[in-house]
Design goal:
Length: 696
């Protein structure tokens, strides 16, 4: 009996292995073509994992099926039919347009995909020749082989183009030697020898100007114009072509800077964010999909030819006699052919209503596409902000044994994200506030020095508008890059914001600045604690500071646990728990600086933040929240502009982040180090009395 079961299982596997594997391979293609694009619109950990698993298994399953066919391990299927199925797997390995790379690292492995393509193609051709000369499907196999080989080539080419080194190389300008120095000196020496009075004049590059966009910026900065949906897409594409080099730290000219500033200075916040959304959508497509690769007339023609080949295969298979083919094999073949046709139609449909078609179509056609139900897009990113609250984290600790097991399994960070992270909608009033603050700062950047000061500020520039802060040294030192590191400033301001928020006297007045402070504070702590890779350029020892501060807070709350419980209306009311906890923290007398008592061993900032909160309270309710909201925008802008560009690009495949929009918006306002601010010289002239000679 023990030998009988494995024999039956082996027989069942030999009979159905290839049929099941090719159908599962097709199933993964269907899942990816419909779900892969949703990862840029939904910030869901489970969705990301599911797409990642499908992405990996899709390639593995197709390659495994090719291996089964090439080794002849399916005895129940004829070699002729198996050789016809093999090119379908090349088609599957080519993947859908919606995803060529799951992450940026996949693009760097383009050469591995190229080698894989060559090996799989050789295997499929080998299987084809094995089926000759008696195969009735030889013509169908050749047609499908051509279509599959092209699809796989398309994917490999897309990976090659999205590889960051190749992406950067494609952006390099033509070599520029500048004015002809040797020729100029020859002419100059000849004139000097002939005692002809001569001077060298430099002609500025056409389109150069001062750092400001124009002399009237201060007057017409708020003369906004509303954009139509089509104008939003067209302008998003225009600025994508100009600023896509941000991903690879490309340098930009003063002309590009001024053009961008001039455009965004005259936009409303809603339109500006919509343009940025379209621009980032194009960046996502360029890095993770085939859209750049397929966006040309030549590729459209090749794709049309592939579709014709697939259609011919379906028509020919219908007409061929199939008496010697089993019913199950007929069904599998029809499913493969029908699936190939349907996937092709879905790809055409997605391409037709994509932003790429809108920007390349005629004006009337573009209007039709963007107004159609399929062309309307509510959003191109998740429009979500993750939140992480220090007080909530400390009041809701996990059991110690859970932490021990989670640490052992290496899933502590995942459990923390599931338990303590929450997501909220990024409201329009928050976008408007951030945009207006950045625009006001950009307007002040009239010189290169001022632009760098604003770019490097993490709260200092805001405090200049509030002279009273000089009376409170902790406020000044908490945002100074000379006295505190960025992660130290962020954590202190987050805890101080929590303390002010939950002990505020105007909680029922719905102060918009108060809510903005809370949302940005929780968002920035989420980035610092749960997105350390994104914030690695500015995080410093943020993780150590956070854990030390949490430990001190937990010890403090545990000590006063019974007193805190007596103030709660209900034990499960987390709002009451936060209020009473913050009030208890604020009641601690902080006459002596914590560092003078504890030394420098512990990096906890708990009571430093309490001291900061006490100083902030002295500004009064309205003034306090107004100043704090602006400081939080500056802290956000600092992190956005100093994080690595490739980390911003990585967020595009995970639902997007508000910090990515701020990074791009700052670049459009000219706030950064990626601009060649001063104008060069297009040519030099020799001026001799009334005669001049130009040297381009």
């Amino acid at each position: 009996m023990s030998d009988h079961v494995p024999t039956r299982a082996k027989k069942l596997w030999d009979e159905w292995n290839l049929r099941c594997v090719v159908l599962i391979s097709l199933l993964f293609q269907v899942v990816l073509i419909f779900l892969a694009g949703s990862r840029k619109r939904r910030a869901s950990l489970w969705l990301t994992w599911f797409i990642w698993i499908c992405y990996l298994l899709a390639d593995w399953m197709a390659a495994f099926a090719v291996g089964l066919i090439s080794h002849g391990q399916s005895n129940a299927i004829s070699k002729e039919l198996a050789s016809f199925w093999a090119p379908f797997l090349l088609l599957h390995l080519g993947g859908p347009d919606a995803i060529t790379a799951f992450s940026l690292e996949d693009n760097e492995l383009w050469i591995r995909h190229l080698l894989g393509f060559i090996i799989q193609l050789i295997a499929v051709v080998y299987v084809f020749f094995q089926s000759l000369p008696n195969s009735q499907f030889w013509l169908l196999t050749v047609l499908m082989l051509l279509a599959g080989a092209y699809k796989y080539t398309e994917r490999t080419r897309a990976l090659y183009g999205a590889c960051l080194s190749n992406f950067k190389a494609a952006l390099l300008p033509n070599p520029d030697a500048g004015p002809n120095y040797a020729r100029l000196m020859e002419e100059y020496s000849a004139m000097v020898a002939a005692r002809v009075p001569v001077t060298i004049a430099k002609e500025p590059e056409r389109g150069s100007s001062s750092l400001s966009t124009n002399n009237n910026d201060n007057n017409n900065i708020f003369e906004t114009e509303i954009l139509s949906p089509m104008e939003i897409v067209l302008n998003g594409y225009k600025f994508f072509n100009i600023f896509k080099g941000l991903i690879v730290d490309h340098m930009f000219s003063f002309h590009e800077r001024n053009e961008s500033r001039d455009f965004f200075f005259r936009r409303q916040a809603a339109d500006a964010f919509s343009v940025l959304e379209v621009e980032l959508n194009f960046m996502y497509d360029a890095l993770y999909t085939k859209m750049v690769m397929v966006n040309s007339i030549f590729v459209y023609l090749l794709r049309g030819a592939c579709s014709v080949l697939i259609g011919m295969c379906l028509q020919q298979f219908i007409c061929l006699p199939k008496h010697n083919i089993s019913l199950s094999d007929k069904i599998v073949t029809y499913v493969l052919l029908g699936g190939a046709v349907c996937l092709d139609l879905v790809a055409y449909f997605n391409l037709l209503f994509s932003d790429w078609t809108i920007v390349s179509a005629k004006q009337a056609m573009s209007r039709f596409l963007i107004r159609s139900p399929f062309g309307k897009r509510n959003h191109r990113w998740s429009n979500a902000m993750s939140q992480h609250s220090f007080i909530s984290f400390c009041l809701k600790p996990r059991f110690r044994w859970v932490n021990t097991v989670a640490d052992f399994l290496g899933v502590k960070d995942i459990l923390d994200e599931c338990k303590y992270k929450k997501s909220i909608v990024c409201e329009q009033n928050l976008k408007e506030f951030i945009f207006n603050e950045l625009r006001t700062k950009a307007q002040k950047a009239q010189t290169n020095k001022m632009a760098k000061e604003i770019y490097s500020a993490r709260g200092e520039c805001v405090l200049l508008d509030y002279p009273r802060h000089y009376s409170y040294p902790l406020i000044s030192s908490s945002v100074s890059d000379l006295e505190s590191e960025y992660d130290e400033s962020l954590l202190m301001w987050h805890i101080a914001t929590e303390l002010c928020y939950f002990t505020s006297t105007d909680q029922s007045n719905n102060n918009p600045n108060r809510e903005i402070c809370k949302v940005l504070s929780d968002y920035m702590l989420y980035l610092l604690v749960m997105r350390p890779k994104l914030m690695s350029a500015v995080a410093g020892i943020g993780q150590i500071r956070f854990t030390d501060t949490c430990e001190e807070a937990k010890i403090f709350f545990q000590r006063w646990r019974h007193e805190l419980i007596s103030t709660w209306s209900t034990p499960t009311n987390i709002g009451d728990r936060k209020v009473s906890a913050c009030e208890k923290l604020m009641s601690v007398k902080t006459v002596v600086k914590p560092r003078e008592v504890k030394g420098d061993r512990s990096k906890s900032l708990l009571f430093d933040a309490c001291m900061l909160a006490h100083e902030l309270e002295k500004f009064g309710e309205v003034r306090k929240w107004e100043m704090m909201s602006k400081v939080w925008v500056e802290l956000l802008a600092y992190a956005a502009s100093h994080c690595r560009a490739n980390e911003h690009a990585r967020q595009l495949s995970e639902g997007g982040e508000l910090i990515v929009f701020v990074w791009l918006q700052m670049a459009h306002f000219g706030l950064g180090e990626q601009f060649r601010i001063e104008a060069g010289h297009a040519r030099a002239k020799l001026l001799a009395k009334e005669v001049n000679t130009e040297y381009p």
